[in-house]
Amino acid sequence: MRSSNPPKKKRPLNRPAPPDVNWDEKLVKALLGLRRSPMQTLQQEPWHTWLRERGGLNRVIATLRAAPLSPNQKQLLEIILASPNASSVFYAGKLYISRSPYFERLNDLVGVLRVLLNDWKLEPVYSRQAAQAASLPSTLTPLVGADKSVAAVLVLLRRPGMRLLTLIGPGGVGKTRLAIAVGSRLLEDFHHGVFFIALETLNDPALIVTQIARALNVESVGTQPLPDALKASLRERQILLILDNFEQLVEGGPFVTDLLQAAPHLKVLVTSREALNVYGESRFTVPELTRPGPDHLPPLEQLSRWPAVDLFVQRVQTRHPGFALTESNQQTIIGICDRFDGLPLAIELAAAQVKFPSPDLTLPPVERGLKTLRDVSRDRPPRQRTLWDAIDWSYRLLPQAEQALFRRLAVFGREWSLEAAQTVCETDEARARLESLVDKSLLRYAPPGVDSALRFQMLQAVREYALDQLAASAETKQTQRRHAAWYLELAQRAEPSIATPEQPLWTRRIDQESENLQLALQWMLDNEETEMAFNLLGAAWRFYLIINIWSETWLWMDRALAQGVHLQSAGRAKTLWGASWLAGNQGHYDRAMSLAEEGLALARQIGDKRLTGLLLQNVSSGLARTGEHDQAMRLLQESLLIFQALDDREESAWVLDHMAWVLWRSDERARGLETLQESLAAFRAMRHQWAIATLLRQLAEMALSNGNNEQAAALLEESLAISRDLGVKQYIAETLRNLVLLSWQQADFEQVKAMVEEGLTLSQELGDRLGIGWGLNFQGLLALRQSDTVAARAFFEQARALFEEVGSQGALNYNRECLERLASAGNGSGGVQG
Question: Which residues contact 577 (CB under 8 A, 6 or more apart)?
Answer without folding.
Answer: 538, 596, 599, 611, 614, 615, 618
